Amino acid sequence: MHLSQLEEWVTCDGLPLLIRPIQASDTGALRDLFKSLSMDYACETAFAAVGRLDRAEALLGVVRLCVDPEGRRAEMTIAVLTAEQGRGIGTLLMEKAVRYARGRGIAELHGMVHASNARMLSMARRHGVTLLSHPDGILQMSLDVASVEIATPCLPY
């Protein structure tokens, strides 16, 4: 399927919008969008792994938690630059999320992962994540925060 087949013109509150896949040329617009977002740290938290690439500071990965109203469960999403995957950055971010969740009294982290995401599934299994199958190759992940053994020490730089 060609990406242009995924484009749709719609109207939202009288505003015509093109809904389409994100493109490499959207980099500046995405940066502007993220700068304009506000985060309610009472229910949302995000941590970034920042490193140096080509002598410039770069965002290598992010973990985001969205806590439910009762404060007992949180949805977790992790994203790591494709070129930096397999280096342990996702593991460090997940473990940071677990430490944060423990401090907040959050008992469970959950999320979705595609069945083809072998690196994420490997990391999930190493940390005792429960995986439940859903249609279309999607797996639901559930992690009991108290049972996670933090294997990767965060050492001072």
Features:
alpha+beta, Aminopeptidase, six-stranded mixed sheet, 3 helices
Give helix and strand order, one letter per element, not per position.
EEHEEEHEHEE
What count of helical segments does DSSP give? 3
Strands of the largest sheet, in order across it? 3-4-5-6-8-7
Poorly predicted segments: none
CATH class of the domain at 39-147, named Alpha Beta
Give your account of this protein's structure.
With 157 residues, the chain is an alpha+beta fold. It has a domain at 39-147: Aminopeptidase. Helices cover 22% and strands 38% of the residues. It has 3 helices and 8 strands. It has helices at 27-36, 89-104, 118-126, and strands at residues 8-12, 15-19, 44-53, 56-67, 73-80, 108-114, 130-134, 138-144. The chain has a 6-stranded mixed sheet with strand order 3-4-5-6-8-7, with helices on one face. It has a two-stranded antiparallel ribbon with strand order 1-2. The longest helix has 16 residues, at 89-104. The mean pLDDT is 87.
